[in-house]
Amino acid sequence: QWLRGFADLPRPQALSLKSFGLRFPARIARASDRRTCAAMVTMGAMPPLGDVGKTTDDDDTDRVEFTLRFVPVARAYSVAFFATVCVSGLVTFTATGWSWGADKIIMYYGFLNPCIVFDHYPAKAVAMTGMCFFILIGILYSAMVFVSVYSRREFSATAWAGIVVWTVTLAHLAFVNVFVTNLYPLAEAATPRRLHGVHRMTNGTISLYEDPFEVVGVNGTMSRADISIVELHTAFYVVWLLGELWFLTYCAQMWKEVSQKLSCLSQLGHIGVAAVAFYGMAMHAAAMLVIILQNRPKVEWYFQEEMQSSVQWAIIWLDAKTGTSAWGWIPVMFYRWVFSTGSGVRVSMSLARRTGDDGGVLPEWWLGRALQTAAFVLGIGGAFVGTWEQDTTTVFRLASALRSKPFAYFGAPVLLAVFICFGLGLFLTCVQQRLMHRRLNWKLVVTAMSLFFALLGCMMVVLERERFTYMFFFGAVIGFTAWVLQLCAEKNLCGGLVYCASGGLLLALAIVTNFWLFYYLFLAWLCFYNPVVPDGRWVYITISEILEENEQYLPISVVSGGKELDGLVKPYLSSNEQFTRPPT
């Protein structure tokens, strides 16, 4: 069959790069007539094996291109952090019961720390919302770095970039555990105060409850459990800081390519900035690690007692003399800015598979796998946490397992990663529908955005004192229902209606009866997304690296045969003759 279809294929044609929508700077486009041979490429029109004998539709020439540059994303990363600190700090000092003498971070370290704006409720809910976007932007930047290296088609470099980016992503996801730890739990009358999972007792045993033994702090007393939870709170911060430090060392290798175009003085400036940033981050992380390893408040031993380890003493001495505890975290927010303003990545998506693309993706499968992973996390949470059926603080009681420690330290980062992957699937589906129907479905886009933000709001279920995430949960259910019905409207409307109605019935039975079987049937219902929602067409992705800073494109553009579609915005092309390297 493949050989018979081969006879129906058109002959190889000489196709210009412009016919594929590749855009050139204005000066090169005007000179293209004199360089026809250089701008032509001979390609065989051989489709993939599954499409042998089929001709390509006209709408397959459409492409959606996204241009992402490093510096704007790095600025968004910094802005997200400082905006979150400012807003949550305002809420902390105006809407909470914060006081200098009662703050456990100050009692432990003896000085003001930015982390205090992340600990007091309700400022904690505001801070967690902002930091989820901060984590999302950080993961996006790391992914851009990986894509940039991958576009060079060097296996060893791509493999090493994958290891680095994967480790940094895990460190970013683990940062959400800073909010999972609860420094100020609600007191329970006539019962020991339950804190965060495993805590060390004075006799070396492990307990889930507060040790009555107290250690004198600066302006009050701290129990052994309070000390343990402050140290655990700091440990997640140190993990994130070490991930950033490794990412800084990797990015320093990329600076070599940028520095070749700079003057000698600028190169020395870049080296100096990198050295200061590395020293500050390394000493800050090392000092914080030494402090929490002492298992005592810093104010009790800091330069008051001899330390048994000479290496630890040297780290503490250097940290104190250079003040890295105060400024060592600041380079994390700015070292990404050193990338050239022109360096970035361009991602092109189309329905047609061509030579040189980087593979395809079926968005429906991506969404289905994300839903299955979320169901798996909630399912094992119900198995490992035995008290979720008695928890009345959430409407969907199985979700309360995500705030039970130590399971929450695993469930919260994984669930955030699942929500990010689900958001990527929503984005890919919107692009797929745009390419298939040659118009942007704004209803679908609004539904996708509403669903994604509702899911991010559901992340606050990990906060022990929250009582409002049921609104985000029901918003996510409504958004998911609208999403499924829109995708099933053309080919499987009856199936979509039955699927949504059965899911609503299972959810209602689970909430009303509080019977564990209905909760797990609802989780199984989520796993049937793929059999119900019709598969669209594969979206083929082409990745290229932006090399020159003078080559300017709009962040998003839609191209058909080299021309803009539907009167959409046209990209601005500079007049220089430098152009980005096309994909291999």
Provide a concise account of the structure shown.
With 584 residues, this protein is of the alpha+beta class.
β-strand number: 12
Terminal Cα separation, in Å?
Answer: 31 Å
The Rg value, from CA coordinates, equals: 28 Å
Oligomer: single chain
* Global shape: flat
State the low-pLDDT regions, or none.
1-59, 188-213, 561-584
Helix share, percent: 40-55%
Work out the strand percent: 5-15%
Given the helix and strand composition, which structural class is it?
alpha+beta
What count of helical segments does DSSP give? Answer: 20
Question: Strands of the largest sheet, in order across it?
Answer: 9-10-8-3-11-12
Mean pLDDT level: 79
| Main sheet: strands, sense, barrel | 6 strands, antiparallel
